[in-house]
Amino acid sequence: MYIKRLFFLLICTVLFAINISSQNAFEGYEWKLLEPSGEAVGRHENAFFEYKGKFYLLGGRGVKPVNVYDPATNSWETKGKTPFEIHHFQAVVYQDAVYFVGAMTGKYPKETPLENIWMYYPEKDEWKKGDMIPEEMRRGGAGAVLYQDKIYIIAGIELGHTSGCSNRFDCYDLKTGEWQGMTKAPHVRDHFAAVLYKDKIYCMGGRNTSVHHPNNFAAFFAATVPQVDVYDLVENKWVTLKEDLPVPTAAGGTVLVGNSILYFGGETGQDKAHNETFRLNLDTHQWTELMPLKIGRHGSAAVFYKDKVYIAAGSPNRGGGNMNSIEVFSKE
Q1: The predicted structure's pLDDT at residue 12
Q2: Mind listing the pLDDT tens digit for each residue in 190-203?
Q3: Which residues of the chain have pLDDT under 70?
Q4: Does pTM surpass 0.90?
Q5: Which of 82, 126, 71 is nearest to 105 (CA)?
Q6: Strand order in the sheet with 116-121
Q7: For residue 146, what are the CA distances in angstroms to 24, 100, 198?
Q8: Is residue 262 part of a domain?
Q9: Most buried among 62, 145, 241, 244, using CB within 10 Å?
Q10: Bond preceding residue 186 cis, omega within 30 of 0
Q11: Given phi > 0 = left and psi -120 to 50 = alpha, else beta, which region is 47?
């Protein structure tokens, strides 16, 4: 009996220590604005990703150059422009190229989805048109992740900001060029980014942009999706977490940090972009609130690099607005 009690106390102590450690995982972290040399071109609905130690700011509304941030020198440089207007997408880095699937082009509100995959080669600063996307799988504002030489595309919207918000789930095999339809997600959503952790895809944030009211076309801004859907790539099934995103927004920054997903910013029906930062513990599925962004923003992406999280560009307001600032989340 005595040994059992000791064992029980030991287990409780370990669990308590894990819980305290989990709560304090980002203690002392806060956002700060950087003041780099050089300058990026302001934009939103763009990609922001890391490739070989440098961060690429690419796409967004309009035809803009590729800007490259070097964290080692805190500086920007400018590359060539995109071959056409490309926006509302999540970039996927694979080998020496960056793939764009689930993207849109054109003007608000009837933007159209891309008919083909496009690739960008950072070292060459070159673009290449890839395989055609099956018509029924074309949409923008979708989540996209890389897993075992395949790109998985989740949800998105078929026709810009008008109609076709989807819960489609499709797979593109980078080795064979073949497409495969998968089991649909539990919830429709667009304007979001997916995150891969081990063998699972996490879908959080976003909205249903198909929502319009007779006297309020822009009702979709408030039609955010609070649920977190998770797809298990080993068991091939979807589940929805019990714990919702604390402040549901669309087009928020999403990044994997260890056993956590950080979610920050985004837009809703309010005039200003959100600045809240939340952490989802992937072991306990519990949310905690962290220090807020210095500037609320939506419509960009985030990079985790050497224990720091970076986000650049985006819009400070609901809808349009272009920023070129960059923030970092760290202890320094």
Answers
A1: 41
A2: 999 999 999 999 99
A3: 1-23
A4: yes
A5: 82
A6: 90-94, 97-101, 116-121, 126-132
A7: 30, 12, 11
A8: no
A9: 145
A10: no
A11: beta
In 53-149, at which residue ranges do the beta strands (DSSP E only) sit?
54-59, 65-70, 75-81, 90-94, 97-101, 104-105, 112-113, 116-121, 126-132, 143-147
Token digits for 180? 């495969």
Burial tier of 310 (Cβ tally within 10 Å: 0-12, 13-18, 19+): buried
Complete DSSP assignment for 149-187: TEEEEEEEEEETTTEEEEEEEEEEETTT--EEE-PPPSS
Give pLDDT tens digits for 274-298. 999 999 999 999 999 999 999 999 9
DSSP string over 268-300: -SSSBPP--EEEEETTT--EEEEPPPSS--BS-
Provide the CATH number for the domain around residue 52: 2.120.10.80
**Termini Cα distance of the chain:** 50
Number of structural domains found in the chain: 1
Q: What is the DSSP letter of 309?
A: E
Q: Which two tokens stand for residue 154?
A: 């989740």
**Which residue type, as a one-letter code, is found at position 30?**
E
Residue 289 lies in a domain: no
Supply the range of the domain harboring residue 64. 37-253
Torsion angle of the four alpha carbons 217, 219, 221, 226, in this order, in degrees rounded to the nearest 10: -140
